[in-house]
Design brief:
Blueprint lengths: L1 E5 L4 H11 L6 E6 L11 E3 L2 H7 L1 H6 L2 E4 L6 H10 L4 E3 L6 H10 L4 E4 L5 H16 L4 E8 L9 H12 L5 E4 L11 E8 L5 E8 L4 E8 L3 H14 L5 E3 L1 H6 L1
Parallel strand pairs: 1-2, 1-4, 2-3, 4-5, 5-6, 6-12, 7-9, 8-9
Antiparallel strand pairs: 7-10, 10-11
Helix pairs in contact: 1-8, 4-5, 6-7
Length: 256
């Protein structure tokens, strides 16, 4: 499969390119887009915008089978418009989208196959399932989520932490997500708490604590390298091959 990498100059974009260069999942990077890249240091054409890519390399656009995005949520509108215009499936691996950008993503998925997940680790997908199941089995237990990431991460809480909290909400009608606490902030029974820590070069740690007065169950996932997410994104790209337009996620992939 020929891929266009959105956010090609960033750490994750370069990881995708590195894996594709090795033929991971039979992938090949044919082009990239990154507004701050100068085009050097790539084994493929890298442009500053999708407009530049279309204007100067229309042959590469036509050759593309899929777009893998690790850029910034502010690029959502331009990215989805480009994908829809050229009928290219999209793997969206960027987090922090606004409510308006989520609407744009859903609208695009009506026209192209679009894979959208807050985290591209199979382990995290399993953690989400376990959190949902455990919260349902212990309906009166309190739920707290702690997420730790490197000091360069922009959004807080992480998209993955929100996904975990929303999974609990599915089996806890009336619950509410509380992000961070300070001052006088007594815990309420309906709270699903999320705490964010930013430090060092931590790839990603997510811990879900589900406890009563008598017991606590702790579910934890730790990513040892951010390359894990590049692998997951390329696995998602392979999954989208031949799919009908629609919005797909990790649960879709796990179900086959």
């Amino acid at each position: 499969m020929n891929i266009i990498i959105s956010g090609a100059g960033g750490f994750m974009g370069r990881e995708v390119a590195r894996l594709a260069d090795k033929g991971y999942n039979d992938m090949k990077a044919v082009a990239g887009v990154d507004p701050v890249a100068d085009g050097s240091g790539f084994v493929f054409e890298c442009c500053k915008s999708f407009e530049d890519l279309e204007e100067h390399h229309p042959d590469l656009v036509k050759a593309a089978d899929i777009i893998v995005d690790f850029s910034h949520h502010a690029a959502t509108e331009a990215l989805t418009a480009f994908a829809v215009k050229n009928s290219i499936p999209l793997v969206l691996a960027t987090t922090g989208q606004t409510e308006e950008e989520i609407v744009v993503i859903k609208e695009a998925s009506q026209k192209i196959p679009l894979f959208f997940a807050s985290n591209y680790s199979i382990g995290i997908a399993l953690l989400v399932q376990l959190a949902r199941t455990t919260a349902a089995a212990l309906p009166d237990a309190e739920v707290e989520i702690v997420e730790i990431h490197h000091d360069r991460k922009i959004d807080a809480p992480s998209g993955t932490a929100l996904t975990l909290a929303k999974a609990v909400q599915e089996v806890r009608p009336g619950s509410r997500i509380v992000t961070g606490r300070s001052g006088i902030a007594k815990r309420q029974p309906e709270d699903i708490g999320i705490s964010s820590v930013r430090m060092g070069n931590v790839a990603g740690i997510h811990e879900v604590m589900i406890g009563t007065q008598n017991q606590t169950i702790t579910l934890k996932h730790e990513a040892h390298s951010r390359a894990l997410f590049a692998e997951g994104a390329l696995t998602a790209a392979a999954f989208l091959k031949g799919k009908e337009p629609g919005l797909y996620d990790m649960d879709s992939m796990l179900r086959g």
